[in-house]
Amino acid sequence: MADIGDRDQPLTPAGRLFLQPQMNQIISAVLAVEFPIDIDTFRAEVQSSIMFKHPRFCSLMVRDSSGREHWRRTAVDIDQHLIVRHHPLSDDPSTSDEDAVHEFIADLAVSSPLPADKPLWEIHLLMAHKTMIFRVHHALGDGISLMSLLLSCCRRADDPTRLPSIGGVGAAASEQRRRLSVRALVMAVWYTLVYVVEFILRAAWWRDRITAVSGGSGAELWPRKLATARFRLDDMKTVKRAVANATVNDVLFGVITSGLSRYLDTRSPKALPEGLRITGLAMVNLRPQSGLQDISKLMNGDSETRWGNKFGMLLLPVYYHRGTSDPIQFVKRAKAMIDSKKLSLEGPFSYNIGNLVMSLFGPKVACLLNYRILCNTTFTMSNIVGPTERIIIAGNRVERISVTSTSLPHAITMHMVSYAGMADLKILVAKDIIPDPKTLAKCFEDALLEMKEAAKAPTN
User: What percent of the chain clears pLDDT 90, i.e. is strictly above it?
Assistant: First the structure.
């Protein structure tokens, strides 16, 4: 592998970052289906799909004599990537399918890297639990790219000849900025400066205060547990309508703020100071079109909508508050904070400065800076808007879609995917720090229900 061929392609800066030991990330997309999985039908579906033909899914990751990574095309044997498990994951018959799959994925999150002698993806078929787990290395692409590719293998349940609807939502940030007033432009410059300085301080020394949900250096190696908070999108939209110009993301972050405050009340023996800051790290898609992408556009080489890792990072503060008579205040605070983040260039800055550091100093320095930011914050979160209609894969109806990833120095990693009127928030935790993730999940669910009741209550 020392001599790189003419047709080999270099990895992107973000791809190189995700291959570093401390940042080695694998994304797991989980599809629970209605009927038992037909292995032959599923194998044929994958072999005929865009996934099986995509250059990144047909390439080995190789290194040249100087250690720089490249993609090298290779022949793909589907049977090397398809891992079939016929027996139940648990010997206890009282264990639900979801709990058994949760335990399996939590184990994969810390102990099962992808082998480098084949393209960096694999599919686990859990036959006894009617579940498919697509494991894909983050170096191949970000969540938007990979979910868009996965859904290209699916069809609408009401019309199997059609692909799922994967259009984006909302206007592009660039279009919004072109309509900025002079005052808004000044505020955008100010917010950008403030948030850029915070990023620098987070990479240097500024750390969240230690709480019952804090991780830190080395926590990515600790055993994990996984739980799900399940929300009705109609409930989130009810709360959204109670706050002028709010979005589902505003509601989600309000729910997380309220839920974490509730959980900390149950775990902290001493009262935490009101307004204590806990900082989250969120991923934001930087493509012009928000939401899932047309896979043909992702693969056509356009620099704006291209395949790969094209996301920035936002530092999102959560402020601890004890019980309040108006739970909608959590959403209002979240909206005000997120609006200022949208107005700034924090996301594009984090993306471009990461590429610059990688180009000037190499992946080890870039990894160190990103790792320090993770160690100095408390949790990670992402949100992907999935298809609104029911879908099928290999003729089998998909009941639920969810996403999680391998562990980070954070004790809490949260990924939400919406599908057919529901949204699953997967909560991956370091179990020695948070031994009861189901309690945390219920805190989030209860927070949304309380907000919904407040939103429906008549105003005086």
Answer: 63
Distances in Å between the Cα of 82 and the Cα atoms of 25, 76, 205, 372 are 20, 11, 44, 36
- Nearest-CA neighbor of 420 among 238, 234, 168? 234
Neighbours of 129 (CB within 10 A): 21
Note if the pTM is more than 0.85: yes
pLDDT score recorded for residue 174: 43
pLDDT in tens, 217-241: 999 999 999 999 999 999 999 999 9
- State the CATH number of the domain containing residue 293: 3.30.559
Whether residue 299 has pLDDT greater than 90: no
- Domain span including residue 346: 173-222+233-382+427-456
Quick check: 43 pLDDT over 50?
A: yes
Q: What share of the chain is helix, strand, coil (3-state, %, to 5)?
A: 40, 20, 35
460 pLDDT exceeds 80? Answer: no
Question: Is residue 121 in a domain?
Answer: no
* 47 within domain boundaries: no
Q: Is residue 74 part of a domain?
A: no
Please give the tally of structural domains in the chain.
1
Torsion angle, alpha carbons of 77, 164, 166, 11, to 10: 0
- How far are the Cα atoms of 7, 27, 265 from residue 447, in angstroms, in the given order? 53, 28, 14
Supply the DSSP string of 29-74, one letter for each residue.
Answer: EEEEESS---HHHHHHHHHTSHHHH-GGGGEEEEE-TT--EEEEE-
Judged on CB neighbours under 10 Å (0-12, 13-18, 19+), 158 is exposed
pLDDT for 427-438, tens place per residue? Answer: 999 999 999 999
